[in-house]
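Thread title: Can someone regenerate the structure for this chain?

I was given the following input by a collaborator and told the matching C-alpha cells would be attached. They weren't. Posting the sequence so someone can regenerate them.
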Amino acid sequence: MEPRLRASPEQFSALIEFMERHGDLSRPQAGAQGRLRADRLWQELTSLLNSIGGGVEKTQDKWKKVWADWKTKTKKKFSLIRRHASGTGGGPSSRQTLTALEERVVAVIGMSAGVGQTSIQEQGFNTPSQPSEEPIVRSEGSEIQLILEVPNRLPTTLPTPPPVPATQPSQSQRSPPRYQPRTPPRSSERAASASPRSAAATPRRRLQMRARRNRGQTPFDRAASEFVAIEQRRLQLEEMRERHLHEREGERLRQESERIEVAREHNQLLRQLGVVAERIIDTLSHIRPSLPSTDILPDTE
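Best answer:
Regenerated them for you:
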C-alpha cells in the first residue's frame, strides 16, 4: 500500500481552525518580534498537524506550501463563482459552490483577497442576498423608462406614464436625472451553500479580526516592549551607579593625595625645626665657656 501523500480532512480542519485563531500566518509580519512570533506559531502548527492520526507528516516548509496552494485554489474558485454571479445576459450561472472549509478560508484571507477588489468589504459573503432594486430614469424624448436591477433577470420595462400637464415646466428645462451607480449583484447560491456554523461564526471572526487590527500590539509584543523598557532602565541605573562609584573613587584618591601632601609638609617642617634646634644647641655650647665664672671662692684665713 502506497503511503498517503495528501493531508486528511481532519488535518485541513485543524489547519483552518488554527488560522482562524491566530490569523493568516503567511502574511508578512512587521518587525523582528512579529517574525519570531510567526515562526513560533508555524512550529506549533506543524507539531499539531503531524500529531493527528490517519494523516500525513510534513515539514514546516511543506505545510506552508499546503496552506499557500489551498489559498490559491480557493481564490481561483471564489473568483470564478463571483464572475458567473455578476455576469449579465441571463445565461446559466456556475454550479460550483464553496465548501464549508473553503468558506472559512475566504473568511481568513478576506473577501477582497479572493476577488481582487478593494471596494468589497471583507468576509461579507454570509450576508443574505437580497435583490437591490434601484430605479434608473432614462429620458429618450418624451418616453421615461424605469429599470429594476434584479440579479440574473432581464430588465423589465414599465408602461409609459401619462403626459405631463402643461402647467409644469417642460422636460428640456428640468435638470438631468441623477443616475445611481450599479452595485455588483450578490450570489444567492453562495449564501445558500454556507453552513449554519460558518454563518454564525463569521460575525464573531469579523469582530475579532477588526479588534486585532485596531489593537496596536499583541500581548506578546507588549510584554516584549515592557521587557525592553525594563532592561533599558536597568542599564541606565547601572551606568549611574558606575558613574557614582567612579566619582567617589576619584574623590577618595584626591583626599588621599592631599593627606599625603600634608604629611610631607609636616615632616619637612619637623626636619626644619630639628635643624634649628641643633643650631641653637651648638650656639649655646660655644657661648657658655666664654662667660665669667660665678663660683664663690672660699675664704682663706
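Residues 223-288 form one domain.
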